[in-house]
Amino acid sequence: MTDFSTWMLTCQTHMENVLADSLPAAGIAPSRLHDAMRYAVLGGGKRVRPLLAFAAGEATGADRSRVQYAAAAVELIHAYSLIHDDMPAMDDDALRRGKPTVHVEFDEATALLTGDALQSLAFEMLSTEPLADDAASQLAMVQLLAQAAGSRGMAGGQAIDLDSVNTALDLPELEFMHIHKTGALIRASVLLGARCGTLADQDAVALDHYAKCIGLAFQVVDDVLDAEASTATLGKTAGKDAAQNKPTYVSLLGVTRARELAQELCTDAHAALEPLGPRADRLRQLADFVVERSF
């Protein structure tokens, strides 16, 4: 097995190429919209969700030529969510991945349409590329991503987040919000990648539990980094949550306890993967990467 850093870089490079080929070419009318789509998606980000999809695909014996499209679809949904999240109507941020946000670089109307177009492209990709052995299985994958992105997933979690400004949430309420806002798309990444291969029922249960743990751990670490890291390190405005008086794991638990919680979730994620044996080693490595990352 290649070392984790090499595997991760290989997947990230491959994902960049797939995304570049899947997005409308620069200069094609409407050129401003297509330029904004490429600006928003390419050349930035850790591609954690695609990495999870590739790792889950390895656990179920999936062909990477299938997984790459499921991974790209999830990443397009993620990119669209960041564009809308950064707009003045929501978090009103000027920096993302170390460069001006889409509405700053282009304009608000273009940013709104860019997010819409990326969402549509994600479902076009998921419904047209060969991902499964039969149409019913592929349709179930489309449904999975739709639910993860919709009111019972990411969009619903964002709505709760906006409603929670200046509100003190307890731990179950905070977890409920982030299971939807952050966790739903991470869960979809794992399950979509796994479904590109042969997914036994018991493995699906194990992977689902793993994904839920990692989804929460990712958000806990994000909250810690927002409180402790610099804007230059993060590539986005640091301290934004505290400035907007948003409830976070750090504001509720403090930095030390939040870090402990992230480690506990990582341990639970590892335990969930025991039935899969060495097939899930990449997923184990990704769990450690999510919790130990510094940006």
N-to-C CA distance: 26 Å
**In this structure, how is the largest beta sheet organized?**
2 strands, antiparallel
CATH class: Mainly Alpha
Share of residues in helices:
over 70%
Radius of gyration: 18 Å
What is the number of strand segments?
A: 2
The fold-level CATH name is: Farnesyl Diphosphate Synthase
Strand content: under 5%
- Which strand order do you get reading across the main beta sheet? 1-2
CATH architecture assignment name: Orthogonal Bundle
Number of alpha- plus pi-helical segments: 16
Structural class: mainly alpha
**Mean pLDDT across every amino acid position:** 93
Query: Going by CATH, what is the homologous superfamily?
Result: Farnesyl Diphosphate Synthase
Q: Return residue spans where pLDDT drops below 50 for at least 5 consecutive residues.
A: none
Summarize the helix and strand pattern as letters. HHHHEEHHHHHHHHHHHH
Q: What is the count of structural domains?
A: 1
Could you describe the 3D structure shown?
The structure is a single chain. The protein is mostly helical and 295 residues long. The protein has 16 helices and two strands. A two-stranded antiparallel ribbon has the order 1-2.
